[in-house]
Specification:
The chain is mostly helical. It contains 6 helices and no strands.
Length: 162
């Protein structure tokens, strides 16, 4: 895929892409730090409450202490690293992809389908589309319109500064 660069976008367009990256980065970073600082946080309850086609996979993760410890570690540090990457504009392609993967797991664990009821309350009433899917779509936008080389530390690691 050819990178068209920021030069093809107005200042406003470029600014809003960067703002989107920063806001999503903050959300990921904050979620990771809160989980890191909470001594009793675990993904176990969330995974044990899973529904949909992949619920057996998520139940297996929740029911295996060694796997759950790995999932907890990857979740916390994945959120933190994705958040830092997006906010600082460093390794933004990797950070964006990592965020997409995390959000896909969250969505597949608790898909908002008809007759889906979960013990953990959601923030609203959803059908098919929820905040995880919307944030995932926003990260897809950032993946195809990257901003780290223009506004971020990626510019120092790029042989082609746009």
């Amino acid at each position: 895929m050819k990178d068209m660069g920021f030069r093809n976008y107005s200042f406003i367009q470029s600014s809003f892409l960067v703002l989107l990256r920063l806001l999503i980065g903050w959300h990921f970073l904050y979620e990771g730090i809160v989980k890191l600082w909470s001594s009793n946080w675990s993904a176990g309850g969330y995974l044990a409450d899973s529904g949909g086609v992949f619920k057996d996979f998520f139940f297996w993760m929740a029911g295996n202490d060694q796997i759950l410890a790995i999932v907890d570690f990857l979740n916390i540090w994945g959120l933190i690293l994705v958040g830092l990457g997006l906010m600082l504009g460093i390794f933004t392609r990797w950070a964006t992809f990592g965020g997409i993967v995390l959000l896909a797991f969250y969505y597949l664990s608790h898909p908002p389908l008809i007759n889906s009821e979960y013990a953990l309350p959601s923030e609203g009433s959803y059908l098919i589309v929820n905040k995880n899917l919307i944030e995932l779509a926003a990260l897809l936008v950032l993946f195809v319109f990257p901003t780290g080389k223009q506004v971020g530390f990626d510019r120092f690691f790029s042989s082609k500064n746009v």
